[in-house]
Amino acid sequence: MNAMEIEYSGGVAAAGGTTETDIDLSSRGRDNHQQAAMYLVWEDLSVVLPNFGNGHSRRLLDGLTGFAEPGRIMAIMGPSGSGKSTLLDSLAGRLSGNVVMTGNVLLNGKRKRLDYGVAAYVTQEDLLLGTLSVRETITYSALLRLPTTLSKQEMDEIVEATIMEMGLRDCADGLVGNWHIRSISGGEKKRLSIALEILTRPRLLFLDEPTSGLDSASAFFVIQTLRNIALDGRTVISSIHQPSSEVFALFDDLFLLSGGLTAYFGPATMAVEFFDKAGFPCPSRRNPSDHFLRCINSGFDQVTNNLMGSRRIHDSDPLMNIPIAKINATLVDKYRTSEFATRAKARIREISSIEGLIVESRRGSQAKWWKQLSVLTCRSFKNMSRDVGYYWVRIGIYVTLSICVGSIFFDVGTNFTAILARGACGGFVAGFMTFMSIGGFPSFLEEMKVFYKERLNGYYGVGVYVMSNLLSSFPFLALMSIATATIVYYMVKFRPEFPSYLYFCLDLLSCIATVESAMMIVASLVPNFLMGVTIGAGYLAIMMMTSGFFRSLPDLPKPLWRYPISYINYGAWGLQGAYKNDMIGLEFDSFISDGTKLKGEFILKSMLGVPLSHSKWWDLAAIVCLLVSFRLIFFAVLKLKERASPYVRTFYTKRTLKHLNKRPSFRKAASFPSKRQQPLHPLSAQEGLNSPLHY
Ligand SMILES: Nc1ncnc2c1ncn2[C@@H]1O[C@H](COP(=O)(O)OP(=O)(O)OP(=O)(O)O)[C@@H](O)[C@H]1O
Ligand SMILES: [Mg+2]
């Protein structure tokens, strides 16, 4: 057992059940709980959306200061568009690449990347594999992350307890759903996403609107569970939309955002008092959270004015007579000078002086890599076999096309015209049939999205993912190639020898596997469906053109097309191998009726431009080398995106700030001059920074 620990206690009891699972895998004493506590502090945090044209750059978050402590659950509230997700993304190090972040985010007093498993994050969007059931999804997640030393029974207990905790028992065997599978409801998906993250009892947990789409009772139980997790000494930060008064009462702290500014930060129970003192008391029968949002949602001021003007609304509420923008500005101003702001700063100083806090270089998973590889391969295989669009449709099309090709070139023979026919048939199979691998692109993209989410939460490493993808797809590629090759080979009657048939299968399999790998590289570079398909199709068209079918290899223009393109073209090697496999040793009728027979070797050299200096097995080996290289490139692209992104972000942040600080409009845009006069320090310029990644 390593230094990392997982505790799991009282889950079912929390959800109202009677059984209690309590697995304490820690080999260390209680003292370490304090050490493993996560104090998150953010100081003067700003996020800017730069505009390099004439327009104004937009401050999405403006000088936010706050902290989150272990044992407490914090609610981030604010109207839609106020910056809740942006704040969570900034704290969790997952901001998108087009914005610039400045300020400090400190975990236990240190700057640290919070992605890749240090913190767990339930995003607003649910990214799940649609072909798995709820129970399967949770089980795979548990197998991928819980320690390998846990027995199957313990693992099952944890999974069942989590299903109970999130109220998913009734839909546990229902499939998550995708375009062709009827799905569980949106609220159930949301609870499933939460279940996946609370499974390992993370020390720091971010949630973006975990109760959206839930009825008030479900929302209450979900937040109650999160509160229980917090009470175990974990730090929980959650944005929340319209909580009921019962749900609101479960939160310890409240961070109220209004247009990217802090309207209130402090204990949730004191917020009513703050609003009261600020001159906007909460009416006795109103849900406090509704009142807070009403006071700060200025987006509908114009509409309210119009309705009041046309006398369509008559409201005795005094708030209706004051423009919300004004209330908003007053609250932001009052908070800045309030005792809450002063106390927050004092507490931040206290937190920074706590000694003995450690920041473990913790991964999100405690499972061994080989366990992850086998589980991920198994899950991916199940997904591929259940998703009709992933391989089955393609296999169907390949079989249909093979029958077409087989009947068009049926029993091709060895007369003079068969030379051209054999060449065309080989060219079609090696060149065009591989083209259809582009059909898997949408499914690759779906899988990649789940990969990015799981990777950021530290489920497994890039190498494990790349390997598992190759292994799980292999049976389908083999089935596709063998079915195609068998139908074509025996209908066209290429050659009777079994080794030639075997070579034909291997040649096709390696070409298709290489195209698949190339498509994975495209999917990792261009995570957009239309752009990806277009780029993939362009790449395959170039490969087809230079494969030696449309223009023989020796005739290709030497710069670029012959060297290097035809050498890094799987199609060129595939076609040469297929031609050699078919023609060496065969004799064809001459052009004239009783002329001498034409040898296959002669045709290869003089008519098809295929060099005979190396055997067909070298051609096959070249394709396998390309396949391995493409997989390595795929791995390198994913890895580089992870490693290089902090440096790219640092560079971008520095450049953007330099550019923006020259603009008077950016400097003057401040509504609170005293704050804005302070220079912005690019957070990412500092070592070990909380650098966000963008995919
Ligand atoms: N990467 C980005 N590029 C451009 N604009 C952005 C970006 N991120 C956030 N914004 C803008 O910042 C504002 C705040 O967005 P954010 O998603 O944080 O709001 P929110 O409070 O989470 O809203 P909701 O409750 O609707 O989820 C929005 O107006 C949004 O358009
Ligand atoms: Mg949001």
Automatic annotation (TrEMBL):
Q: Which UniProt keywords apply?
A: ATP-binding, Membrane, Nucleotide-binding, Phosphoprotein, Transmembrane, Transmembrane helix, Transport
Extract the CDD domains matched here: ABCG_EPDR
Q: Does the keyword Cell membrane apply?
A: no
The residue ranges crossing the membrane are: 389-410, 416-441, 462-489, 529-550, 617-638
Give one GO molecular function term.
ATP hydrolysis activity
Q: Per the database record, which ranges form the ABC transporter domain?
A: 40-284
In terms of superkingdom, the source organism counts as Eukaryota
Q: Where is this region: Disordered?
A: 668-695
Where can this protein be found? Membrane
What membrane topology is annotated for this entry? Answer: Multi-pass membrane protein
One GO biological process term is: response to salt stress
* SMART domains reported for this sequence: AAA
Listed under GO cellular component are:
membrane
Q: Which InterPro entries match?
A: AAA+_ATPase (IPR003593), ABC2_TM (IPR013525), ABC_transporter-like_ATP-bd (IPR003439), ABC_transporter-like_CS (IPR017871), ABCG_dom (IPR043926), P-loop_NTPase (IPR027417), Plant_ABCG (IPR052215)
- UniProt xrefs under Gene3D superfamilies: P-loop containing nucleotide triphosphate hydrolases
Q: Which family does it belong to?
A: Belongs to the ABC transporter superfamily. ABCG family. Eye pigment precursor importer (TC 3.A.1.204) subfamily.
- The entry's protein name is ABC transporter-like
